[in-house]
């Protein structure tokens, strides 16, 4: 937060402030758009263009509505609202004329997994199955509040936040599961409801986190079987879901005769794509699919009211023709690599008897988009049943209250619509991963054969998954998938008789394990995770997943692992919530890669929680799990950064260093990408490797690695900080001079032949650097004078969350300062170098080291929170309480200045402040009692005769916090930041916290 006011004020970086206004005040009204109707015209036989429309826009602030909801919680005593079961067309897609039975590549048969060992009669390939890894983290998401059936389980995880979105609520947690806020779905969408002049009854939420833009994307539909049917889209305005969101609404039918059901969501660099199934209001008959393509950049740019985003709309039909915009549930791809900005794929469950799915593509650019249905038809060698409501309102089995015998209530598993599609470019291969629930008999049937008969009835649900070569586009031809298999128990039997009824108890005993509602995620090395619900005749419904390593045998996943289910000690988990005669479950789930490293996984799943009201009421629950891939994550561009450096200093041209920083939020273990490499190389643009970070080196989260010139007359800052144990001795050294204004890069190898853009992790170079491999963007402004001053280039940090900034543009990412505010490159700034090595304190977020006022009963500008002495000149003392929320003893504590109004004096009405050392004091508190306020030391070297500025650090002395006298978990310390006032005026002052461990 920047302070700009006549009186001196400041802010020690804390949580982002939010305006305290009501949801009504947040509404930004715009005009309703008119839907352009009609079937799009054909191009090149199978290419279709869409029609244009505009959405309605509004904004909402989650922190505001969460506070309001907490003050006035829902007190509804009505029966839970039943969300309708997803509707489907009466018929499936037509088989393309060229369809012939094919087999997946690389295998002669399919693979089934089930109970751990090969099931008798199951088709099995490769080595014996092994267990899936246990979760590294798992915690409660949301529990049933008796308002909705079912929850429609959905969530997304960012680098910092875990967001759960259900039909009734959204919950924001940190990645350890601590609840930050909870708000109702109705409150979230209320501003858009006003903007569109209609009441919302929402259903089918979907949410995703785009790690490339660091934004959440949230889609939901509203008003089933209603003239007011709408698609609603929300995009977070920053990476923090607790703050502002931009809201957009689309009236799906200007004639008010159709409504939209079951949104599916995908995106790439340029587009956000939402597909829906359209039904008539009167008869609820399937009419067509519709596809909406939004301008992603515009939606994320926080458009001002009155300028809502335009979109392109593709309107389909119900012909079922192979090359038509037809069929239900087009599952659009999520581009997990940001590698396909002008192409997006769709996968559909197409014809189950023929074992076919259909792939379609969206290409072009905004304004000239082309939708091409039926670019390929991947085929399974086996057929499946697409699913419908059978057997006492459900399909899958569950135990009775004793959990020892089968109970007669079956849980619905819906149908075989495609659940999600992921696009990945792995080892140069463009591929699509998709999954869906299928229904099978105990003896599978070949493609082209109806899988259901009285002699061999379809009697269990299973999960089918696909890996598809995205580059194949033969048109109306069947293709072989790269991989395809089914997760199932071939002994499972719900006693379906093949004719829509149950066999008698005398002739059939229900048994086995059932699977449904899958979602697939794939990491950067080709490992995959399938999350799903798991049902069993002797257990209650559990949350589960299966893991696949890229080197596992083709067409296999490892054994399912149940990470949450109700135990006998907790009570009965039997689930019997009926909606319209069906025991409703699902309707889907979520799995994703961890955005911190694009390697580990998260999944949120539904489970049957303990019954309440004396066992009379069923309860669903949702639960998160983080699963670490067994393979080592690949260090990615943007995860290991050049964070600070200089190429000369007061000791001469050899007084230089290069600091490397782990920005990934997970420890990085260095491992060269090639067999000959011995680590990661730090290289200058003359091709010289200056230092190597050896294979096996672990750089902690927010940690550093320091390279420096060890020649005589070289690096001179090894004693930083004096008096508190140096943390600036080099981790690796070199001896040859780096000429001033030379570009630097770090590569994932030490093999010079492989120093290329694909292996480059980061670069920093001046605008005068000729080799673009050794700079990002246009480069920073080069030094033209003052080569022997105490200076450094260092990365700016965000005043939003304190993390380093990496815009892939050296000119905006780096800042230059020195201890004399010398005009070195046209931009003079007072500050100091602050190199850090592997043993240095680590950046700690506000949730780990929590800042607050030392006297919370008075304002931040009132003593003792802020004290001004001696005017003109004198000092400004800013006091803050720092609470250790790391869960461990803190043995070292310091604060780094990331923004300050300082020399050279900015001009009229702006303050010029210089950080310095302060001493302890004891003062009375207006809140009662007394305060012991600890002084902080301006850390040296270098000497800072003009006071501290940008990048300077203030530390709590070792006599106060050390290994022998740590700050215990949960304990607090009150500290003082002393600023000498060279010129009074309005000012900015921001610090970040660094601590050990």
What does this structure look like?
This protein has four domains: 31-72 and 157-345, no CATH class; 102-131 and 379-632, no CATH class; 635-840, Immunoglobulin-like, CATH 2.60.40; 843-996, Immunoglobulin-like (Sandwich). The chain starts with 41 loop residues before the first strand and ends with a strand. It contains four helices and 62 strands. The longest helix has 12 residues, at 185-196. The chain has a ten-stranded mixed sheet with strand order 6-29-27-26-25-21-22-23-24-28, with no helix packed on it. It is 3% helix and 38% strand. The protein is mainly beta and 997 residues long.
Shape: globular
Q: What is the C-alpha radius of gyration, as a whole number of Å?
A: 31 Å
> In whole angstroms, how far apart are the ends?
28 Å
**Count of discrete structural domains:** 4
Tell me the strand order in the biggest sheet.
6-29-27-26-25-21-22-23-24-28
Number of strands: 62
Oligomer: single chain
Overall mean pLDDT stands at 87
Q: Approximately how much beta-strand content do the residues carry? A: 35-45%
The percent range for helix content is under 10%
Largest sheet composition: 10 strands, mixed
- State the helix count: 4
Unreliable runs, pLDDT <50, ≥5 residues? 1-45, 99-128
Q: How would you briefly describe this protein structure?
A:
3% of the residues lie in helices and 38% in strands.
Tell me the layout of helices and strands:
Elements: E1 42-43, E2 47-48, E3 51-54, E4 56-61, H1 62-71, E5 81-82, E6 112-113, E7 137-143, E8 148-149, E9 154-157, E10 161-165, E11 169-174, E12 179-184, H2 185-196, E13 202-210, E14 215-222, E15 230-236, E16 244-251, E17 258-267, E18 271-280, E19 286-295, H3 296-300, E20 310-315, E21 331-335, E22 343-351, E23 356-363, E24 370-378, E25 420-426, E26 429-441, E27 458-469, E28 478-479, E29 483-487, E30 513-522, E31 528-536, E32 539-548, E33 561-564, E34 578-579, E35 582-583, E36 590-593, E37 601-612, E38 617-627, E39 640-646, E40 657-662, E41 668-669, E42 679-684, E43 689-694, E44 698-699, E45 704-709, E46 732-734, E47 744-747, E48 760-764, E49 791-795, H4 810-813, E50 814-818, E51 842-844, E52 849-852, E53 866-869, E54 875-884, E55 892-900, E56 912-916, E57 921-924, E58 930-934, E59 937-938, E60 953-955, E61 972-983, E62 989-996
């Amino acid at each position: 937060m920047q302070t700009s006011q006549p009186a001196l004020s400041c802010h020690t970086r804390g949580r982002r402030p939010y305006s305290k206004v009501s949801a009504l005040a947040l509404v930004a009204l715009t005009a309703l758009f008119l839907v352009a109707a009609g079937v799009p015209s054909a191009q090149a036989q199978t290419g279709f263009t869409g029609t244009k429309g505009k959405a309605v826009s509004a904004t909402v602030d989650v922190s505001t509505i969460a506070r309001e909801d907490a003050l006035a919680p829902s007190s509804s005593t009505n029966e839970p609202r039943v969300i309708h079961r997803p509707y489907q067309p009466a018929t499936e897609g037509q088989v393309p004329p060229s369809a012939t039975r094919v087999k997946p590549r690389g295998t002669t048969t399919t693979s089934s997994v089930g109970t751990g060992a090969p099931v008798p009669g199951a088709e099995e390939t490769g080595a014996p199955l092994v267990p899936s890894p246990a979760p590294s983290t798992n915690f409660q998401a949301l529990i049933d509040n008796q308002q909705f059936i079912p929850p429609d389980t959905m969530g997304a995880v960012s680098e910092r936040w875990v967001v759960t979105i259900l039909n009734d609520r959204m919950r924001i947690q940190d990645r350890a599961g601590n609840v930050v806020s909870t708000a109702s779905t109705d409150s979230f969408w209320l501003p858009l409801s006003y903007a569109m002049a209609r009441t919302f009854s929402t259903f089918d939420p979907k949410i995703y986190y785009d790690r490339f833009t660091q934004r959440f994307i949230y889609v939901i539909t509203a008003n089933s079987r209603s003239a007011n049917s709408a698609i609603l889209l929300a995009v977070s305005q920053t990476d923090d879901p607790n703050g502002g969101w931009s809201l957009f609404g689309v009236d799906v039918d200007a004639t008010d005769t159709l409504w939209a059901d079951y949104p599916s969501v995908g995106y790439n660099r340029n587009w956000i794509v939402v597909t829906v199934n359209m039904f008539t209001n009167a008869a609820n008959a399937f009419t067509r699919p519709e596809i909406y393509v939004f301008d992603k950049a515009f939606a994320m740019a926080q458009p001002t009211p009155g300028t809502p985003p335009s979109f392109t709309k593709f309107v389909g039909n119900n012909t079922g023709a192979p090359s038509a915009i037809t069929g239900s549930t087009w599952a659009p791809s999520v581009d997990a690599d940001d590698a396909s900005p002008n192409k997006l794929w769709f996968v559909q469950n197409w014809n189950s008897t023929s074992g076919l799915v259909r792939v379609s593509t969206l290409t072009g650019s905004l304004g000239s988009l082309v939708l091409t249905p039926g670019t390929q038809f991947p085929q399974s060698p086996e057929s499946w049943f697409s699913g419908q409501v059978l057997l006492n309102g459900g399909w899958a089995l569950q135990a009775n209250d004793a959990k020892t015998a089968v109970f007669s209530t079956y849980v619905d598993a819906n149908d075989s619509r495609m659940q999600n599609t992921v696009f990945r470019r792995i080892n140069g291969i463009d591929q699509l991963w998709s999954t869906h629930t299928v229904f099978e008999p105990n003896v599978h049937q070949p493609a082209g054969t109806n899988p259901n008969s009285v002699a061999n009835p379809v009697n269990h649900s299973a999960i089918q998954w696909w890996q598809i070569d995205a580059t194949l586009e033969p048109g109306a031809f069947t293709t072989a998938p790269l991989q395809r298999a089914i997760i199932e128990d071939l002994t499972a039997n719900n006693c379906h008789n093949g004719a829509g009824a149950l066999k008698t108890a005398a002739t059939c005993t229900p048994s086995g394990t059932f699977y449904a509602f899958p979602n697939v995620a794939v990491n950067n090395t080709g490992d995959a995770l399938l999350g799903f619900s798991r049902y069993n005749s002797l257990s209650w419904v559990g949350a589960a997943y299966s893991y696949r390593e890229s080197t596992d045998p083709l067409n296999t996943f490892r054994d399912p692992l149940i990470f949450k289910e109700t135990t006998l000690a907790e009570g009965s988990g039997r689930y019997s919530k009926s909606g319209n005669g069906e025991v409703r479950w699902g309707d889907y789930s979520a799995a994703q890669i961890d955005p911190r490293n694009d390697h580990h996984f998260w999944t949120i799943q539904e489970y049957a929680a303990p019954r309440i009201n004396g066992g009379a009421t069923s309860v669903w629950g949702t639960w998160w799990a983080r699963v670490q891939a067994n393979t080592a994550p690949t260090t990615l561009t943007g995860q290991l950064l050049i964070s600070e450096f200089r190429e000369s200093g007061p000791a001469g041209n050899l007084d230089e260093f290069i600091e490397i920083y782990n920005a990934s939020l997970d420890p990085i273990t260095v491992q060269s990408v090639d067999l000959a490499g011995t680590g990661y190389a730090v290289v200058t643009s003359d091709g010289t490797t200056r230092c190597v970070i050896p294979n096996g080196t672990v750089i902690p989260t927010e940690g550093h690695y320091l390279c420096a010139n060890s020649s005589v007359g070289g690096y001179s800052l090894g004693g930083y900080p004096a008096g508190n144990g140096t943390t600036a001795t080099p981790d690796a050294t070199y001896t040859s001079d780096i000429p001033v204004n030379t570009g630097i890069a770090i590569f994932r190898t030490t093999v010079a032949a492989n120093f290329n853009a694909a292996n480059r992790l980061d670069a920093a170079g001046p605008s005068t650097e000729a080799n673009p491999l050794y700079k990002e963007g246009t480069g920073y402004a080069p030094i033209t004078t003052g080569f022997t001053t105490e200076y450094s280039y260092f990365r700016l940090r965000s005043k939003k969350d304190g993390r380093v900034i990496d815009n892939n543009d050296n000119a905006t990412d780096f800042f230059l300062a020195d201890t004399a505010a010398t005009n070195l490159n046209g931009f003079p700034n007072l500050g100091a170098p602050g190199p850090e090595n592997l043993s240095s304190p680590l950046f700690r977020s506000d949730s780990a080291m929590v800042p607050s006022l030392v006297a919370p009963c008075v304002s931040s500008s009132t003593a003792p929170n802020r004290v001004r002495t001696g005017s003109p000149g004198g000092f400004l003392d800013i006091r803050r309480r720092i609470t250790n929320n790391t869960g461990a003893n803190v043995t070292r504590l310091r604060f780094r200045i990331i923004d300050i109004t300082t020399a050279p004096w900015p001009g009229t009405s702006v303050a010029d402040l210089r950080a310095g050392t302060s001493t302890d004091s004891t003062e009375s508190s207006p809140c009662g009692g007394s305060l012991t306020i600890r002084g902080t030391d301006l850390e040296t070297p270098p000497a800072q005769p003009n006071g501290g500025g940008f990048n300077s650090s203030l530390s709590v002395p070792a006599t106060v916090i050390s290994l022998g006298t740590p700050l215990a978990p949960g304990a607090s310390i009150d500290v003082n930041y002393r600023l000498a006032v060279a010129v009074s005026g309005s000012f900015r002052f921001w610090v970040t916290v660094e601590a050990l461990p």
